[in-house]
Amino acid sequence: MNKSIVIIGAGLSGLYLGYLLKKAGFTIKILEANDRIGGRIFTKKTHDTSVELGATWLWKYNKDLMDLCQELKLTLFEQDMDGEALFEATAAHTVQRFKLPAHQEISYRIAGGTVALLEQLTAHFSEDELLLNATVNTIKEQDNTIEVITAHSTFIADSVVSTIPPQLLVHSIDFPVALDTELVHVANNCHTWMKDSIKFAVVYNTPFWEKKGLSGTGFSHVGPFTEIYDHSDFTDKRFALMGFLNGNLATETKAQRELLVKTQLLKFFGDDGENYLSYEEKVWSQAPLTTTATDTYLTPHANNGHLIFQKAYLNGKFIVAGSETSPSYGGYMEGAIYRGHQIALQLKRQFL
């Protein structure tokens, strides 16, 4: 085929699209500004275990994602929900125990962490096909090609696909020939999933909550954490709890957030709760390669899958992709896979 495609972003969207295009015979180059792959998938290793500070769960109705995990021979395991859950209604009330509803939709995790999905995809790329620390500064259309310019290199391609969040795209990359004004407007008002989230995890020597008849699941209207779940590993040899913090705590320091979490863990679980091995967190609003400073509040999934993203730009040479542009499950891992299929088919039709 000898048609070259440059993909911007090595999150799940970019890696999966590169995987599909390489199998189809395209020459690919994936450029990632960060020093790691994954985007909003962020599996952090600590104390001989892995904790998810980004995308974590998948469900049976995530058909494309489930199929991909099977294709890559990944092992899935059920989120442990055995035992009672905890609920904190107000600061004045004690934490209440309750039984979780029966027949809930089962959520699954990937053995080895969500990063295992990324590692299986990247195993198909050479060092020349996936470049880290390669921040794209400019995208410039030529007569029959398109140029992607970084601080150190210029790449010439037949087509360029951006898989970074649309809002980040229009704020961080220069286009000498301006993009469609409606596209820029919608992109600026397209919600980036996870950007408002603060995820945290605490690692323990034992799953002490099980001895208390608890599932590790908890909810709070008070905070600092609003949700918490068992996050022990697939082998049940390492143990953790993981959850979400109130987004208003983004302006606090990590030490201040940890102190608040420690106090709440004590309230929820007693002395065992505060005796953790490590505290880990990720404040996604402070991730410069995920989000951009904006004063505009966007409702979750606002403009995800918008029709404007389904068009090609710069005379058909530039495509805006990524999970937020997916008309199905926009913002989620399933959306990244669904959109990858769409773009791969589009490029095959264009060049075959």
Would you summarize the structure shown here?
Belongs to the flavin monoamine oxidase family. Helices cover 25% and strands 27% of the residues.
Explain how this protein is built.
- There is one protein chain.
- This protein folds into two domains: 1-41 and 114-192 and 298-352, FAD/NAD(P)-binding domain, CATH 3.50.50.60; 42-113 and 196-286, Polyamine Oxidase, Chain A, domain 2 (Alpha-Beta Complex), CATH 3.90.660.10.
- A hairpin with a 4-residue loop joins strand 16 (214-220) and strand 17 (225-230).
- It is elongated and about 70 Å long.
- Helices cover 25% and strands 27% of the residues.
- The relative contact order is 0.19.
- A seven-stranded mixed β-sheet has the order 8-7-16-17-18-15-19. Strands 10-2-1-14-21-20 form a six-stranded mixed β-sheet, with helices on one face.
- The longest helix is centred in the last third of the chain and has 19 residues, at 333-351.
- It has 352 residues and is an alpha+beta fold.
Chain-wise SSE layout:
Layout: E1 4-8, H1 12-24, E2 27-31, E3 43-46, E4 49-52, E5 58-59, H2 63-71, E6 76-78, E7 84-88, E8 96-98, E9 107-110, H3 115-122, E10 130-131, E11 136-141, E12 146-150, E13 154-157, E14 159-162, H4 166-172, H5 181-188, E15 198-204, H6 208-211, E16 214-220, E17 225-230, E18 239-245, H7 254-269, H8 271-274, E19 278-283, E20 312-313, E21 318-320, H9 333-351
